[in-house]
Amino acid sequence: MLQNKISLKANIGKYRFNNVLLNAAGIRCATTDELTKILRSTAGGCVTKSATPQPREGNESPRMKATPLGCINSMGLPNHGLDYYLKFAEENQGKNDNQVILSIAGLSVDQNLEMLHQIQDSSFDGLTELNLSCPNIKGESQIAYDFEAVRDILTKAFDFFTKDIGIKLPPYFDLHQFDQIADVLNEFPIAYVNSINSIGNGLIVNPETESVVLKPKGGFGGLGGDYVKPTALANVRGLRLRLKPEIAIIGTGGIKSGRDVFEHILCGANVVQIGTAFGFEDVKIFDRISKELKEIMAEKGYTSLDDFRGKLKTL
Ligand code: RRO
């Protein structure tokens, strides 16, 4: 009975999501067919595969491997180029409170600014996600570990960009890093941060073959799934405690059940994204997890996500 009264609606500023669950960028979101399938599902919207100005093939295969605890990837930004995703976003943004988040990941500051100019000049009026945390580009660092580089790119971006931006962050591991990134981000009118991207440069070893499991970068790759949930929760919580309230948080990392979503929201997530587990289960995962989350809320007497968002207790 109570379950009918339970709402899983969420919002980031003025953007309404009819469900708190989305895919995480990179997972089943590289083609318009995959993106349309997500929009037609229970999910509250979709994020597009991070785009570069031109289409890219990405790294050599094998470049993704599932394990019992999650997965490792070194995709290397394979995508159809910004024009492709921008057109989809222009055509589908915001219908029935289904948001299309347009993710971009330039290989240089100039590429990011070039794409932001193109988005600024377009009819797209949704959220753009600036991915500053791709771990898999050969010879490149993850920008968001260099705090001055983040300040520099955001200063240049907000010089002309008047639409809404979110920032995809890598996991941080030292509390001084939380302080430093929050100090930088609080200087800008950012709509949200998305924490976390995969944990960069893990290594999975196959003891039978005595080998790594991925071809690019000698086998090093980004970790997702069960490996990363506590790190993701710490990042959501650590940033919620430090960011100004106008900056919303998308919680991403290790979500495969209603309980995982419940924990992310307790830590302060406004919206959550599912990566590895969505890759394993496809769009039916949004039905299953919505049901599981509603069951937990019903048991606790909660009817909206606001009833417990950010209310994690300490001892
Ligand atoms: O394409 C990738 O290799 C990739 C990207 Br852009 C990212 O942001 N995170 C990730 O785990 N893989």
TrEMBL record:
Look at the named UniProt entry and state the broad enzyme category this protein falls under: oxidoreductase
UniProt subcellular location: Cytoplasm
Q: In which pathway does it act?
A: Pyrimidine metabolism; UMP biosynthesis via de novo pathway
Q: Does the keyword Oxidoreductase apply?
A: yes
Q: Which GO terms describe its biological process?
A: 'de novo' pyrimidine nucleobase biosynthetic process; 'de novo' UMP biosynthetic process
Tell me any Pfam family this protein matches: DHO_dh
Instruction: List, separated by semicolons, the cofactors it needs.
Output: FMN
Which reactions does this protein catalyse?
(S)-dihydroorotate + fumarate = orotate + succinate
Report the residue ranges that make up the Dihydroorotate dehydrogenase catalytic domain in this protein: 8-297
Molecular function terms, GO-annotated:
dihydroorotate dehydrogenase (fumarate) activity
The record ties this protein, via SUPFAM superfamilies, to: FMN-linked oxidoreductases
Gene Ontology CC terms, in alphabetical order: cytoplasm
Q: Which CDD domains match?
A: DHOD_1A_like
Q: Does the keyword Metal-binding apply?
A: no
**Alphabetically ordered keywords of this record:** Cytoplasm, Flavoprotein, FMN, Oxidoreductase, Pyrimidine biosynthesis
Q: Assembly and interactions?
A: Homodimer.
Q: What family, per the record? A: Belongs to the dihydroorotate dehydrogenase family. Type 1 subfamily.
NCBIfam families the record matches = PRK02506.1
Write the protein's name: dihydroorotate oxidase (fumarate)
Native species: Lentilactobacillus hilgardii (strain ATCC 8290 / DSM 20176 / CCUG 30140 / JCM 1155 / KCTC 3500 / NBRC 15886 / NCIMB 8040 / NRRL B-1843 / 9)
Q: Which gene encodes it?
A: ura1
